[in-house]
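Protein Record: Sequence and Backbone Structure Tokens
======================================================
Tokens: labelled as protein backbone structure tokens, with as many entries as the chain has residues.
Task: work out the structure tokens from the sequence, keeping to the layout shown below.
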Amino acid sequence: MPNDLRSDSGKPRAPVQAAEATLINAEKQVLDVLHAWAAAWSALDAQTYLGFYGKDFKTPQGQSRRAWEAQRKRILSGSQRITVKIDQPAVTITGDTATARFRQIYSSDSHNETSDKTLLLKKQDGKWRIIEEHSGG
């Protein structure tokens, strides 16, 4: 850390500490969103699950938002059991955008899969919302 950011005692000055605390708080907020998103998915709660996605979410394969939501609702309503777990999450924040990388452990009536997942989130109306998601390497 450059000397001008340290006090005479060698400790970081208050603005640096405040910035670090803000970043840590934002990372915690994103982690809380990830776990709540997985819990809503696991509870088969389509309304809550879809509420984690931002208004500008980029749907997979360029499908319309309406078609994507209908597909997600069909999957959730047609399942008796879905369990989604987040493992080894790592969050990087730049301004009002966060990147969350983790291992997703997914299990349902008909499918089990563990994969690497990346979510791009953006702060919208004071809440972190998913705007992109990618599975695989």
Summary: Helices lie at 14-42, 46-50, 65-77. The longest strand covers residues 82-94. The chain has a mean pLDDT of 89.
